[in-house]
Amino acid sequence: MPSGALSIDHIGVVVRDLDAAAADWQRRFGAQVLGTESLDHLGIEVTYLGVEGQSMVQLLKPRHGPLADYLAEHGEGLHHICYAVEDIAEAAARLAGGAAVNIVRGGRGRLACFLPERVNNVIIELTEVRPSF
Question: Residue 20: CB partners within 8 Å, gap ≥ 6?
């Protein structure tokens, strides 16, 4: 990936029931479960679904915290679009327009952050393309 280039890594969808949601995506779109993980420090459970192409659908089930509040207020549905980047610190500084961002260890052992401003009311996440264990 060229320096500064972005590619869509995944689409995040917040759900109440991971198993039911995964089954629905499998039945309707032929998606395959690639893996699941529990991110206790973020209060979420995650299921990754492979779909045609290189991007994934990430199903997010909140247990507590900000995503649980989001689900209570907005219901199930699209939560964010995540872009893969080579250098998260550089990309966050460039794309956040100088605003502070909180970089955390997210799913798949990758560093990740959410940009402070939405784009057309869509939440944008950045994740490094490789795990950073």
Answer: none
The per-residue pLDDT for 52 is 74
Domain 7-128: which CATH class?
Answer: alpha beta
Q: Take residue 102 and report the two structure tokens written for it.
A: 């909180």
Q: Where are the domains of the chain?
A: 7-128
What secondary structure, in 3-state letters, does 74-106 show? HCCEEEEEEEEECCHHHHHHHHCCCCCCCCEEC
Which positions of the chain have pLDDT values less than 50?
1-3, 133
Residue 131 and residue 84: Cα distance in Å, rounded?
A: 12
Residue (of 129, 107, 133) closest to 37 by Cα position: 107
CA–CA gap between residue 63 and residue 83 (Å, rounded): 24
